[in-house]
Amino acid sequence: MVQTFKNPLRFLCGILLFTAAATAEETVVEFDPGRTKVEFTLADVLHTVKGTFKLKSGKIHFDPSTGAAGGSLIIDARSGDSGSSARDSRMHKNILESQKYPEITFTVRRVNGRVAAEGDSQVEVEGTFNIHGADHPLKLAAKVGVKDAQITASMHFVVPYAQWGMKNPSTFILRVSDKVDIDIQAQGRVTAGKL
Fold first, then answer.
1. pLDDT on residue 25
2. Is there a smaller number of Cβ atoms within 10 Å at the N or the C end of the chain?
């Protein structure tokens, strides 16, 4: 028996939408914790404090045609190291409270701009930054480089930690900034999809 369709235009649109959905391909990027650097810089009146954190994991996925994205970068808050055990102890106990809040997470929601299949690109990444148990909307610029499915991403942003409810470690004698600069140099690979 031959099936007839009362509205052939609707049927055709349905086929086209199904085909588009079937061929749409998300790109998946997995970052390597061993090759990723997370650095922080905190200025004070006497000198600048520099330190590092370790990336626990990082996997994001996005649709290159729409920019819709998901996934996250997860940083081990307890790994914070400035080179001074006394200073680091205060940072973990009094500011980050890293035993209570062991992870710092950037959850990606959108990638604005096109990531080139090979070479360098500049994009804006939108998402939610969670630190000290609280979510904060965040947009950051990222320089992305791709070669043979290997990817690098450089990001810089500022965390106004005092404004976000964490203690400022300043004393009567020692005054430090109420903001900290974060620089991430991430390396990884494209594990699925195309750019």
1. 79
2. N
Q: Is the pLDDT of residue 26 over 80?
A: yes
List, in sequence order, every residue forming a beta bridge with 26; answer none if it has no partner: none
| pLDDT, position 23 | 38
What is the number of alpha carbons within 13 Å of residue 181 lying toward its C-beta? Answer: 10
Query: What domains can you pick out in the chain, each with its CATH number?
Result: 25-192 (2.40.128.110)
Spell out the residues 6+ positions from residue 5 whose beta carbon is closer than 8 angstroms to its own.
11
C-alpha–C-alpha distance, residues 48 and 177, integer Å: 10
Q: Which candidate, 138, 156, 162, 122, places its Cα nearest to that of 72?
A: 138
- Residue 12 scores a pLDDT above 60: no
pTM: 0.83
Measured CA to CA, the distance from residue 30 to residue 190 in angstroms comes to 6
